[in-house]
Amino acid sequence: MSLEMPARAGRVATGRLLELYRGMLRIRAFEERAAVLYRDGRIPGFVHLSVGQEATAVGACAALRVDDVITSTHRGHGHVLAKGLDVTAAFAELLGRETGACRGRGGSMHIADPAIGIFGANGIVGAGVPIAAGAAAAAQLRSKDRVAVAFFGDGATSTGAFHEGATLASSWRLPLVLLCENNQYSEFSVARAGADAMRRRAAAYDMDFVRVDGNDVEEVATAMAAVVAAVRAGGPPAFVEAVTFRVRGHYEGDPQRYRDSDVDAHWLARDPLDRTRARLAERGALDAELDAVAAEVDAEIDAAVAAAERASEPAPATLHHYVRAEPRTGPDERLLDPGAEPVRTSRAIRAALRHELRTDPDVLLAGIDVGAGGNVFGLTRGLAEEFPGRVRDTPIAETAIVGMGVGAAMAGLRPVVEIMYSDFLTVCLDQIVNQAAKLRYMTGGGVTVPLTIRTQFGAGRSSGAQHSQSLEALLAHVPGISVVMPSTPADAYGLLRAAIRDDSPVVVIEHRLLYERSGPGFADDHVVPLGRAAIRRPGSDVTVVSVSRMVHEALAAAERLVAEGIDAEVVDLRTVAPLDWETVLGSYARTNRMVIAHEAVTDFGIGAEIAARAADEGFWSFDAPIVRVGAPSVPAPYAPSLERAWLPGADEIVAAVRRCVGT
């Protein structure tokens, strides 16, 4: 047969079609072997197979370069193989081996290879859309002609992550292709979206829309080549619907009682491999030649499985590897500049952002009203004019804001994204907890996520229960996230600079009642390393551990206690996670008594963790009960009389110290 047959409109050259056929055979053989391995108990965890959807994966990825990015779904084996993932590394990952694509840390639902633009399959429906938007934003900012493609199922178009990611992509005109695999089923039910539902969704976001026969690899490849070329050239984001079919259950072992036999019969007659083989035969391919291709693929799969099964499992000693990136080497904390004028916290934060934007072209600042509006508190005023294109307003879409930051960080930027109030972190918690915090670990160290999330909190101004919460304990509980809470202008500056330079995600929580509080000035190169507490006041009788605003309340309490003959040492945590246990337990060893004070509710707060650790590792320092000070377990009230009763301060710290020292 001739493999150099020129392509006609709507079709690819025969030689190219043969390679696409080989790619589909590889995915089909991979999935069928994975099913056997799972059945035999050799693959742990869940497995979701893409049998029947090979043409969409292969046709779509045929239009992409190695440096283009894809995000995938829990049914992602086909996508990652089509993008170029090594078959042996893929099997090793499913088997939980150290030689796996993610060193056995990701598994089937999280398989990735960022080095070739595979930013990961994802166990959360729709979550990859904002991440792909972030990768596209990085390409746009760097003026690279790269594109990102987000694969998702039609069911994902009901999720907030999809809609927020699409909103951001449209607003910023990102080089992004949203590719919906409409495979007739949505988990455990027949898909019920209307025939034109995806077109309407695309229109709502002002995106170009293309519907293709997802079981025709030639049609998918031709259409995607045109779509990707248009987006790559600066066109608007595009929405492609590939109508295909999921042959197997939602997961292996699914009883599939929901299957529709008429739907199945219709689609099984349109198997993409059979159709492509028939088309190649029409163009002169002999059965023997096509059988030889299939035999080569089968041999490749056999060899890959054998190599994967020979590989070792990750050693238990590596359990703690890849949770955070190694700290970047840099200067130690700079001393305060005694000749500098006092500075307000708000200006210190702006100065830190300006410093990093000026010195590092990869820093991107994004959030609601951070550009033209200069932030709700005016903290970023003037930065958008000074750094055009790198200080960007976003839609009101917190999931998209953080997800974009995750994807942009994976693509090499150092994004600083702002969530206006810490309460709103709950709106985008998936992108923080399941994406930013875990992606380095789940890729076996294959990616870093140098993302900084700035937010603020604080009660005392009758902001009510949805604008006053202290959520640091929730974040500190998640491995992979650093959490900092500055109490002084110098620390607000130095910690923010350290956060932006760190290669792991950091949440910087500022207290809004401290924004206009002044403190000693500092030099431009002032940096406060993460994970290092400060002793604000030395003392000998009791250790008072505090953070953020409560540091000032603790210092005020300590001064009052002097008249009672009590000498309190005040420790400012500064970083909540990772916590500086050396400083905290060292102070406890000197004073033998401890009070922990934070603005958050006492129940299950960071004080509980500090108290437990102190009682364990500092048992021989235990001369009195460890006492915690915090708000009662009630949502922050609105009425000033109730808020005053709810909010802890110096009075509560004084009472706690008296109890601790037995006076």
From TrEMBL:
InterPro entries: DH_E1, THDP-binding, Transketo_C/PFOR_II, Transketolase-like_Pyr-bd, Transketolase_C. Its cofactor is thiamine diphosphate. Gene3D superfamilies: 3.40.50.920, 3.40.50.970. PANTHER family: PYRUVATE DEHYDROGENASE E1 COMPONENT BETA SUBUNIT, PYRUVATE DEHYDROGENASE E1 COMPONENT SUBUNIT BETA. NCBIfam families: PRK09212.1 (NF006667). It comes from Pseudonocardia aurantiaca. Residues 343-517 form the Transketolase-like pyrimidine-binding domain. This is dihydrolipoyllysine-residue succinyltransferase. It is an enzyme of class 2 (transferase). It catalyses: N(6)-[(R)-lipoyl]-L-lysyl-[protein] + 2-oxoglutarate + H(+) = N(6)-[(R)-S(8)-succinyldihydrolipoyl]-L-lysyl-[protein] + CO2. Its EC number is 2.3.1.61. SUPFAM superfamilies: Thiamin diphosphate-binding fold (THDP-binding) (SSF52518), TK C-terminal domain-like (SSF52922). Keywords: Oxidoreductase, Thiamine pyrophosphate, Tricarboxylic acid cycle.
